[in-house]
Amino acid sequence: MSEFQYHEFQAVERPLSPEAMATLRQFSSRAQITSSGFVNEYSFGSFKGDPDEWMVRYFDAFLHIANWGARVLMFRLPSSLLPEASARVFVPGTDSRPRSESMETAGSGQRLQRGANRPVR
């Protein structure tokens, strides 16, 4: 059975600069990179970037799907829009967690991550 992974990042609040796009290109020669996103499918090999870092530096949304059942969905939202206490309602379970952290490039924000890095039943 062959491996399949899909990674998609989207920039909603701010477009990627040409410099940012050039930096992202260093991680994949085959990815579709535009001022609003990065999309790549892998049939062999794996993603070389760090989704958490890319969400802080460049993007507002991330989706990862793999044929072995891994699913990750992340959003970066302003803390004022979705306080952590409210976010917890949307991410129940032990592998799902809202994470607050200071984001130098975008001010303070809230990232929601819903991840299932195990087979979905």
Task: Spell out the key features of this protein.
single chain; 121 residues; alpha+beta; seven-stranded antiparallel beta sheet; flat; disordered C terminus
Task: Draw up the topology in text.
Layout: E1 5-10, H1 18-25, E2 32-34, E3 37-42, H2 51-57, E4 61-66, E5 71-77, H3 84-87, E6 96-103, E7 107-116
Antiparallel strand pairs: 1-3, 1-4, 2-3, 4-5, 5-7, 6-7
Q: Roughly what is the average pLDDT, rounded to an integer?
A: 78
Instruction: Tell me the number of strands.
Output: 7
Radius of gyration over all CA atoms, rounded: 15 Å
Shape call: flat
User: What is the H/E string?
Assistant: EHEEHEEHEE
What percent of residues adopt helix (DSSP H or I)?
10-25%
3D architecture notes:
The structure is a single chain. With 121 residues, this protein is an alpha+beta fold. It contains three helices and seven strands. The chain has helices at residues 18-25, 51-57, 84-87, and strands at residues 5-10, 32-34, 37-42, 61-66, 71-77, 96-103, 107-116. It has a seven-stranded antiparallel β-sheet with strand order 2-3-1-4-5-7-6, covered by helices on one side. A hairpin with a 2-residue loop joins strand 2 and strand 3. The two termini are 19 Å apart. Residues 100-111 and 114-121 have low confidence and may be disordered.
Give a quick precis of the structure.
The protein has about 120 residues and is of the alpha+beta class. It has helices at about 20-25, 50-55, 85; strands at about 5-10, 30-35, 35-40, 60-65, 70-75, 95-105, 105-115. Strand 2 and strand 3 form a beta hairpin.
